[in-house]
């Protein structure tokens, strides 16, 4: 079972550049030399978008927005930008990331319950018509993962982490059927409860149903570390599992150097490498073909300070120290870049990236770690740092990148084509969130 618990779905793109990313104070350009330009076909303003727009059906795009301190799921006609429908959704006090959960033209969301903070009813809206179906079952949503997901395993159904009925503990919930029945996922699918990696006192095993694919002694595989995957099985990526670990005997709050990452083979279970004081740097889901990284290189984020329970997010007490590149197949360190402002990299060609080092945009060779000042002629697609407030929730705007010139201002007509990772391509239009509005772009001329 490919669990989505504790994982935020978003695109990780520090900056996509028409030519490159550049330091502040360089020249604004609407397009780089030799590239086509774009023009705005339509704009749809009102409220503040907090997620990137996503295609939900034929000619319809949906996104989350905040308006008058309330959270809404809103649908637009991709050709014209006209509003199709707008529905209020729940905003938990612990909501961090939001992205529409979509299956075959149906969009799952959490309908708020008036006067019952933290309690919702799972709901589905038809993207084409705006007609809604709401479950009769109230759910006390998780305080750490208050998000509904489209199920990877059972198309047309949704999943949520929370508590129902008289249950004393939060669990993985399955939302399905025409009336949106809500039940314990593992009770409904008992054969799949133990799929994936299994940790017991003596062994670590990979199970598929009743079949054990491999088994390794726990002392050999972990060797002084404890599994801390925190509520979900690690997912297999490119033939390996990456497992969050802590040193045996360490206690929360953890010293950053007591938190580490273990990589093991998904085929044999053999240990490949273990490093302390790091977390992975990669998207939680695959991005489009434009995302490129060199073969056999894994990028890691180095931290100092203390970390809380959920190790995928170091939290406010941990501070970033560096980006390290290691050889994926052996764990050999290739290079380390110090004094980075963020632990994010993006590259269109698998050769270059443009991290910010001590406040200055820098050109980085991904294979060698060599750096030099970034070129001046650029338009950089940069992740927005703004947050929005809805009721008591602080919502981090997800997947929203803006074309910024050297002066720091948003460029209205960036070069064409726009990054395919962002927004929706519908015919000759590219629709995406820019600033506080949704825009439909097309090629100029």
Helix and strand arrangement:
Elements: E1 15-17, E2 36-44, E3 48-49, E4 54-57, E5 60-67, E6 70-77, E7 83-88, E8 101-103, E9 106-112, E10 119-126, E11 132-134, E12 139-141, E13 149-150, E14 158-163, E15 171-176, E16 181-184, H1 185-188, E17 196-199, E18 203-208, E19 211-217, H2 218-222, E20 225-227, E21 236-237, E22 240-247, E23 254-255, E24 259-265, E25 271-276, E26 278-280, E27 297-307, E28 318-327, E29 333-338, E30 352-353, E31 356-357, E32 360-365, E33 371-373, E34 380-383, E35 387-390, E36 393-396, E37 401-404, E38 415-416, E39 424-426, E40 429-434, E41 437-443
Antiparallel strand pairs: 1-34, 2-38, 2-41, 3-5, 4-5, 5-6, 6-7, 8-9, 9-10, 10-11, 10-12, 12-14, 13-14, 14-15, 15-16, 17-18, 18-19, 20-22, 21-22, 22-24, 23-27, 24-25, 26-27, 27-28, 28-29, 30-32, 31-32, 32-33, 34-37, 35-36, 39-40, 40-41
Write up what this structure looks like.
The N and C termini lie far apart (48 Å). The chain has 445 residues and is an all-beta fold.
Task: Please outline what is shown here.
With 445 residues, the protein is mostly beta strands.
Identify the notable features of this structure and list them briefly:
445 residues; mainly beta; nine-stranded antiparallel beta sheet; five-stranded antiparallel beta sheet; 2% helix; disordered N terminus
Which regions contain 5 or more consecutive residues with pLDDT less than 50? 1-34, 283-292
Number of strands: 41
Overall body shape: globular
Mean pLDDT, to the nearest integer, reads 79
């Amino acid at each position: 079972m490919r669990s989505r618990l504790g994982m935020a779905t978003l695109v990780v793109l520090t900056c996509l550049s028409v030519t490159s990313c550049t330091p502040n104070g360089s020249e604004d350009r609407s397009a780089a030399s030799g590239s086509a330009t774009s023009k705005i076909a339509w704009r749809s303003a009102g409220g503040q978008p907090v997620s990137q727009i996503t295609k939900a059906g034929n000619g319809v795009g949906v996104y989350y927005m905040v308006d008058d301190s309330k959270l809404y799921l809103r649908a637009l006609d991709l050709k014209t930008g006209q509003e199709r429908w707008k529905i209020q959704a729940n905003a938990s006090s612990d909501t961090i990331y939001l992205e529409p959960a979509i299956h075959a033209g149906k969009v799952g969301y959490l309908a708020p319950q008036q006067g019952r903070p933290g309690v919702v009813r799972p709901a589905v809206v038809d993207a084409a018509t705006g007609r809604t179906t709401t479950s009769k079952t109230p759910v006390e949503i998780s305080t750490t993962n208050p998000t509904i997901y489209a199920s990877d395993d059972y198309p047309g159904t949704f999943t949520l982490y929370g508590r129902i009925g008289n249950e004393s503990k939060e669990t993985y919930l399955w939302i399905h059927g025409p009336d949106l029945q809500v039940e314990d996922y593992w009770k409904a699918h008992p054969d799949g409860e133990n799929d994936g990696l299994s940790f017991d006192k003596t062994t670590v095993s990979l199970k598929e149903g009743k079949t054990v694919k491999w088994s390794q002694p726990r002392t050999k595989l972990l060797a002084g570390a404890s599994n801390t995957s925190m509520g979900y099985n690690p997912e297999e990526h490119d033939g390996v599992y990456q497992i969050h670990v802590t040193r045996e005997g360490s206690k929360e709050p953890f010293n950053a150097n007591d938190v580490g990452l273990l990589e093991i083979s998904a085929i044999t279970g053999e240990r490949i490498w273990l490093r302390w004081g790091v977390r992975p740097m990669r998207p939680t889901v695959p991005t489009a073909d434009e995302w490129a990284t060199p073969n056999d290189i894994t990028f890691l984020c180095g931290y100092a300070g203390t970390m809380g329970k959920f190790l995928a997010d170091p939290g406010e007490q941990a501070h970033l120290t560096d980006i390290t590149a290691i050889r994926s197949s052996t764990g050999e360190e290739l290079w380390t870049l110090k004094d980075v402002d963020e632990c994010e990299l993006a590259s269109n060609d698998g050769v270059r990236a443009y991290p910010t080092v001590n406040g200055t945009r820098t050109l980085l060779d991904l294979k060698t770690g060599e750096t030099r000042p970034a070129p001046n002629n650029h338009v950089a697609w940069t992740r927005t740092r703004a947050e929005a407030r809805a009721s008591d929730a602080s919502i981090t705007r997800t997947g929203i990148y803006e074309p910024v010139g050297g002066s720091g201002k948003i460029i209205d007509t960036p070069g064409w084509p726009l990054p395919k990772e962002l927004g929706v391509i519908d015919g000759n239009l590219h629709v995406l969130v820019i600033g506080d509005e949704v825009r439909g772009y097309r090629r100029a001329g």
